[in-house]
Amino acid sequence: MKLWMYKCIAVLSLMMAFAGVLLPGLPATEFVILSAWAAAKGSPTIYRFIMSRPYFREMIENWQNGRVITRKNKVISTISISVCFLILWVHHVAFWVLFVATAGMLIALVIIWRRPEVRPATSQSSLASSEAE
Question: What CA–CA distance (Å, rounded) separates 47 from 38?
């Protein structure tokens, strides 16, 4: 039963990540990380699929090694959130919807921009020493 739950979470999260690439305001990075976590627990096949994609693998490895979000991903997230805000504003949605969505997007931006952009020096130096051996 647990394996099926993890598999469902992995597949649904991966589908949301693909949709997030196309739709402004829908995060892709978070869904990729969630999908990898669930797949690692429930489906080695899905996990191998995710890790075989260089773009996804880089995001996941950065997150696993220091909770890193690259500047490129931060900028893409900021642009996507800004576009989403503009769409809501231009379409004159209800004030409470605009307020709640904007608050959520601002919280997400603060979290994203507070994450480090490069892996910690200790993991890079240990990587270099293990490669030298």
Answer: 8
CA distance 53 to 11: 15
Query: What whole-number distance in Å separates Cα of residue 91 and Cα of residue 110?
Result: 25
- Locus of tokens 């899905």: 46
| Assigned token pair, 42 | 């429930």
Q: What are phi and psi of 93, to 5 degrees?
A: -70, 165
Alpha helices in 91-120 (DSSP H): 95-114
60-78: per-residue pLDDT in tens? 998 888 899 999 989 988 8
From CA 118, how far away is CA 70, in angstroms rounded? 7
Q: Cα-atom radius of gyration of the chain, to the nearest Å?
A: 17
pTM: 0.71
Q: From 56, 67, 51, select the one nearest 119 (Cα to Cα).
A: 67
